[in-house]
Design brief:
371 residues, alpha+beta, two-stranded antiparallel ribbon, globular
Length: 371
């Protein structure tokens, strides 16, 4: 029986199960020997690209991308679930040990949103935690360990798959999630699929790490718990939709009213008292109607990974799609094949989307020349 929730989801409860992060393409390429991209990653063709001297694929372009990941990959406190020790950085610690009394959740929710934007978020929404969107199993970083350190052996395929197949359960009492979207640079994204577009994504991951680190500490300084997440722990897009930030597009990405899919999503789970936002049903209806007839992202896709069917479906394209939700499914196996070929993520589906509001598409040379 299909259970129709209130907008925005139509879910087949007999099919839907919490997603195993192991089935995400970035993990599947490590264990699924049926894939043409088995044991390959985006570094496979980088040296050939550099040697080709193709516009947008020079050593300078790749240097820009790799440097953009610096904070995300190397900062050990970006994705912590708890603060182990109170360290006096000059402001003392005694005042942090008790819970700040929140007398009005509505007013305090505005303070949290202000703080999130102050630390770098472009858009912020609050949602109740829906267990459906929490990974059933996944990769859990050791505490106070950077992404690069935590995943070095995983990325090299030297660890048993049990390391990225650990149960994911939020602590009792964590019932709210602060979802943030951060804008990607319009000029850089417009060069997709060249490397400046990949750099636009990379630097936002580092800004995500900074933003959630600061917001998490802000919450802990008030005596509450915070679990800082990027793509880990839970599915970001349905959480963002629950938090009123936008709708799911044909391209499988969050479309926001303000920036379209030209954002990256991060989140902080917490037990601090907050008022939740409602899904933006008006915008969801607009996107659903628009995506039925607009095929620009599908036409821009290098590997035909984006469906051109008119209506939503319950039928997934690959095991990397979580079945049971009625939507447009993207063939992420084909998508990742192009990532390997391109030596980076792509961005064509973002640059081509009318909701991205890109005023002019630039060549990589024009991107570098524009000051």
């Amino acid at each position: 029986m299909v259970n129709v929730k209130k907008n925005p989801y139509e879910i087949d409860e007999t099919v839907y199960k919490r997603f195993k992060q192991k089935d995400n393409m970035l993990f599947r390429r490590l264990w699924d020997k049926t894939l043409p991209t088995y044991n390959q990653m985006i570094d496979t063709n980088i040296e050939n690209h550099i040697a080709s001297k193709k516009d947008g694929y020079s050593r300078i372009d790749f240097a820009l991308v790799a440097a953009g990941w610096t904070v995300y990959e190397r900062f050990p406190y970006a994705f912590t679930w708890e603060r182990k020790n109170l360290i006096d950085i000059g402001y003392g610690v005694n005042w942090m040990k008790s819970k700040y009394e929140i007398k009005n959740s509505k007013s305090f929710t505005k303070i949290i949103k202000k703080a999130a934007k102050f630390y770098g978020a472009s858009l912020v929404g609050i949602a109740d935690v829906n267990e459906k969107w929490i990974y059933k199993t996944g990769f859990k970083r050791p505490d106070e360990t950077s992404e690069a350190e935590a995943k070095q052996e995983v990325r090299e395929g030297k660890i048993a798959d049990s390391i990225y197949n650990q149960p994911i359960d939020l602590p009792n009492g964590i019932n709210k999630v602060i979802v943030m979207a951060i804008e990607m640079d319009e000029d850089a994204i417009s060069t997709a699929p060249a490397q400046p577009a990949a750099a636009a994504s990379a630097i936002i991951y580092s800004r995500m790490a900074f933003t959630i680190s600061c917001l998490g500490e802000f919450i802990r300084n008030l005596g509450y718990r915070a679990i800082q997440c990027g793509n880990d722990t839970a599915l970001s897009i349905p959480l963002a939709i629950d938090a009123g930030l936008g709708a799911l597009g044909r391209n499988g990405l969050l479309l926001t009213p303000e920036l379209g899919p030209r954002v990256r999503i991060c989140k902080v789970f917490t037990d601090i008292p907050l008022d939740s936002d409602e899904p933006n049903e008006k915008f969801i209806r607009k996107v659903n109607h628009y995506c039925k007839n607009c095929l620009k992202c599908a036409e821009a896709c290098e590997t035909d990974a984006i469906s051109k069917v008119k209506n939503h479906t319950f039928v997934p394209s690959t095991i990397s799609n979580n079945p049971g939700v009625k939507k447009y499914y993207v063939d992420v196996e084909k998508c990742f094949e192009f990532w390997v070929e391109n030596s980076s993520d792509c961005g064509n589906c973002i640059a081509s989307c009318p909701f991205s509001r890109i005023r002019k598409n630039l060549t990589p040379d024009e991107f570098w020349s524009k000051i």
